[in-house]
Specification:
6-stranded mixed beta sheet
Length: about 375
């Protein structure tokens, strides 16, 4: 194991990396006390056994300049391999506004292989590398120094076995013609919009309670206030206000500080930073929101007019997923099933390989042109003859 802490060492590794077609990458970070992730380690492995084949880059306390690494990330001849890349990509995007490319995510590829949704790295390592990895240090304090030998060994294992997993999955995707399945999914992962949070839309992340547009206008204003304060002070959202506090404040509609006494334990940050009066103004903005600007709120607890059609499409989805040995979530989400049942013609499930595997027949079912027939333990889609 080689611990890299200087720019010269990292540049030496990057020069060596240009000799190979892929590089396995992972990160360790902390986020429990901050809004933004704090990068602590970058682990990388190359498909060789030399001195520079496996490294751990320590970026804490003025670590190496990463310019050389970003050059590797931009090199189109080197595939950058991650497992469950979303949080890693967020770190690099926030740092430099760009993504490693070309990219291969073994978690996404595993769904195309036939594993379930969000399959863990440990499962893939056991399957393809016949190894059981130690997950004990997973929730370590990666920002504390020195790191133990066990921590470093755990961190490095996240990329050493990733090489074997990648080779197996990439070979399968190429053999089965499913490389474009992966490419379609990675389009969302490498979209800047995936990582940009509009404070005005922060309320949509909440578990909506009730269906009053006026009440949700207040929730929208408070959620925006929380997002802006969390970002500006680099603290977790719940350190500003908990989700529960947002809904309680919206229900109370405080006009003076005394109105907040009954939820005082939930307002520590707001009180300490002198933002109580601003919070009250935020609530007033929601109360006085013009009718034309009220948010559209999903109706809660009402029956879906296409509930039976939705269930039928879910059966078809499961059948097609089983037939093609692919995780059903990779084909379509529950929201996308609902969109098809509601007549949404621009849904991505109707396009590309998803359309071939499921979408087009799903549309035929919606139009009454196709039915499902149970034959023993399997489900068959059959064309309905017009009367």
């Amino acid at each position: 194991m080689k611990i890299v802490a200087t720019t010269d060492e990292l540049n030496t590794f990057c020069a060596h990396a240009r000799e190979f077609p892929f590089i396995a990458v992972d990160t360790e970070f902390v986020r429990d006390t901050t809004y933004f992730p704090r990068l602590c380690l970058i682990q990388m492995a190359l498909p060789d056994t030399g001195e520079w084949s496996e490294i751990v880059v320590d970026v804490i306390s003025g670590g190496p300049n990463l310019d050389g690494l970003y050059e590797i990330f931009r090199d189109p001849s080197i595939t950058k391999v991650f497992h469950a890349a979303r949080q890693d990509l967020e770190i690099f995007f926030l740092d430099r506004g760009e993504f490693p490319a070309p990219l291969f995510d073994t978690q996404v590829a595993a769904m195309a292989y036939g594993f379930g949704e969000n399959v863990g790295y440990r499962v893939l390592v056991q399957k393809f590398a016949n190894t059981i990895i130690d997950k004990g240090p997973q929730f370590s304090r990666w920002d504390k120094r020195p790191l133990s030998a066990r921590q470093l060994s755990y961190a490095l294992a996240d990329v050493t076995h990733l090489r074997t997993v990648y080779l197996a999955l990439s070979e399968y995707l190429a053999r089965s013609g499913r490389e474009r399945w992966l490419a379609d999914e990675l389009t969302t992962l490498t979209s800047p919009e995936t990582y940009k949070i509009d404070p005005r839309k922060a309320w949509r992340r909440l578990n909506i309670r009730g269906n009053s547009p006026r009440n949700m206008a207040i929730v929208r204003e408070i959620a925006q206030f929380r997002e802006e304060q969390a970002r500006a002070n680099d603290v977790p959202r719940n350190r500003v206000l908990t989700d529960d506090a947002i809904f309680k404040i919206a229900a109370i509609k405080p006009t003076v500080q005394a109105d907040l006494r009954q939820i005082q334990p939930l307002l520590h940050f707001v009180r300490r930073t002198g933002l109580v009066n601003r919070l009250i103004c935020v609530v007033r903005r929601g109360v006085e929101c013009p009718e034309s600007d009220l948010p559209e709120v999903p109706r809660i607890g009402t029956a879906n007019p296409n509930v039976y059609l939705v269930q039928l499409l879910k059966v078809l989805l499961r059948a097609r997923a089983n037939k093609h040995k692919v995780a059903h979530r990779l084909i379509a989400s529950a929201d996308e099933i609902g969109a098809i049942a509601a007549g949404e013609a621009r849904c991505r499930v109707l396009q590309g390989w998803r359309g071939e595997v499921f979408g087009r027949d799903a549309l035929q079912v919606c139009q009454g042109k196709m039915a499902l027939r149970f034959t023993g333990s399997s489900i068959e889609a059959i064309t309905v003859q017009p009367e």
